[in-house]
Design a protein that fits this description.
Structural class: alpha+beta
Number of domains: 1
Shape: globular
Largest sheet: 14 strands, mixed
Number of helices: 4
Mean pLDDT: 82
CATH superfamily: Lipoprotein localisation LolA/LolB/LppX
Radius of gyration: 28 Å
CATH topology: outer membrane lipoprotein receptor (LolB), chain A
């Protein structure tokens, strides 16, 4: 008598074993797949991380490539960029053979644009309207500095007086209203790094103001720096900045923010500074 099962019996036995295994796993409370759900994101926790990140920035020297699109017309150029946490900016646009063709300086008090070819200096009060007139970006200079360094504007109060939080397993964002600047903020964050990857702002009546994407973060001296930033405004202005070379917190003198225009330059005023 042979103890080997016939092929047909082998198939029956195999099917029986598979049926028992399926019954054990599914019918008797065996192994089940459960989706891992992350805990909800707290507005207060996220803002604490972002405020801590903002404290790590003092100043920047950088070589950048800039692309600006206004109503379908695109302009690209390279620039040398300086700014610091007090809201001061100096941009030197350079062309062929690194010859400067414009200088922009801004701080919380005034904005000036100098064009060497025309020997023309345009100056006015520091405001989002004047910055838009000169470069097409409707932001306060100090807000521009904060955003271009991967931070929330300094005008954002902490903690917010009103906050709404979303679960991380939905879209990983938080939304809150900042009473200090009457603006709604919605942030997508990298909680491990404590930085923003996207920011949307709206007015108090929910009209879109600004969308910013932060990409390619790099750790520099303990600070996460976004090497590429893209901004979009409802006025059909898109701005992309790519940091090529940069140094952080090296100390920048006050003189470095001055514009190099010669005596006798014609000054045109915008706003009511003079």
């Amino acid at each position: 008598m042979s103890f080997l099962l016939q092929p047909r019996c082998q198939r029956v036995l195999l099917l029986g074993c598979l049926g028992c295994l399926y019954f054990l796993l599914c019918g008797c409370g065996g192994l089940k797949y459960t989706k891992r759900v992350q805990p909800p994101i707290s507005v207060e926790r996220v803002l604490a991380q972002l405020v801590e990140h903002r404290r790590g920035f003092e100043d920047l020297r950088a070589r950048v490539s800039v692309s600006i699109s206004r109503e379908g017309k695109r302009q690209s150029f390279s620039a040398n960029l300086l700014f610091d946490s007090s809201g001061r900016i100096r941009i030197e646009g350079v062309g062929f053979a690194d010859i400067p063709y414009f200088f922009l300086a801004a701080d919380p008090n005034r904005i000036c644009l100098y064009e060497p070819a025309q020997q023309r200096l345009i100056c006015g009060e520091s405001s989002s309207q004047n910055l838009e007139r000169l470069v097409g970006l409707e932001l306060q200079p100090e807000s521009a500095v904060a955003i271009f360094s991967g931070n929330l504007p300094a005008s954002v109060s902490f903690p917010p007086l009103r906050g709404v939080f979303f679960r991380a397993d939905q879209d990983g964002s938080v939304e809150f209203f900042s009473d200090s600047d009457q603006t709604w903020y919605r942030l997508w964050v990298d909680r491990q790094k404590g930085v923003m990857v996207r920011m949307e702002t709206k007015s108090a009546d929910k009209k879109p103001l600004l969308t910013v994407r932060f990409e390619d973060y790099q750790m520099v001296d303990g600070y996460y720096w976004p090497r590429q930033i893209e901004c979009s405004l409802p006025s059909r202005v898109d701005l992309k900045i790519r940091y090529k070379q940069f140094s952080l917190n090296s100390g920048i003198s006050d003189h470095a923010f001055h514009l190099p225009y010669p005596p006798g330059t014609v000054i045109e005023n915008i706003g009511s500074l003079w």
